[in-house]
Every structure is written in C-alpha cells, then in structure tokens.
Amino acid sequence: MPARLLDAQGGTRLEQLRALAQLLAAEIDACGDAKVLPALAKQYRETIREIGELEGAQEHGDEISEILAQRAASGKPGAVRKGRAGV
After folding, report:
1. Nearest to 55 by CA among 23, 24, 18
2. 3, 26, 46, 67: which has the fewest Cβ within 10 Å?
3. Alpha-carbon distance 20 to 63, whole Å?
4. Which residue, 41, 8, 14, is CA-closest to 27?
5. Are 43 and 31 in contact (CB under 8 A)?
6. pTM (2 d.p.)
7. Sequential DSSP letters for 24-85
8. 54 near 14, Cβ under 8 Å?
C-alpha cells in the first residue's frame, strides 16, 4: 500500500471514500506491478460505486424520511392520523 497515509477516522463516510478513491487512483497510475493492478482496480471500482450510492442517497433521500421531515416541519405530531386510520 502507499507511503501516504489516509486519515480513516476524519470526515464523513463520503469524504473518507473520496480520499480513498484519490489514493487508489494515484496508486493505479504509479503501479508497475501487473499482479497488483487488478486488485487496485477492483478496489477503485468498488469505492467509486459506493461513492455514487452515497451521493445518490443524499440527493434523493428516502421518501419516508422526507415525509417525516415535512410533518415535523409543519408541526403535525405523529405519523398516524387517528381520524384517517380508523383508530
């Protein structure tokens, strides 16, 4: 692995993955060992995929969380309205 250190404890998960992707890209560029390159490339692809998933999750969020956030912002107290739920 590289001589440079990756601060694995600092930042968000997304920031850590971005730093790892940069580190892996530099290692791939500098790699002269044909036996090591496939493993580096695989890890790079997996890291990029996970970054994409996290970015997509942040951009789109999940519908339930959005609904609950809207309800909290509007001051409506619970997720179930007794008049509509037949309770």
Report:
1. 18
2. 3
3. 30
4. 41
5. no
6. 0.58
7. HHHHHHH---TTTHHHHHHHHHHHHHHHHHHHHHHHH--HHHHHHHHHHHHT---SS-HHHH
8. yes
Token duo for residue 79: 């997720």
Q: Is 20 helix (H, G, I), strand (E, B) or coil?
A: helix
Query: What does the pLDDT profile of the chain (87 residues) look like in tens digits?
Result: 444 555 666 788 889 999 999 999 999 999 999 999 999 999 999 999 999 888 876 666 566 666 666 776 776 555 555 555 554
Q: 74: which 2 tokens? A: 């509007």
Q: How far apart are the first and last CA of the chain?
A: 60
Tokens standing for residue 83: 């008049």
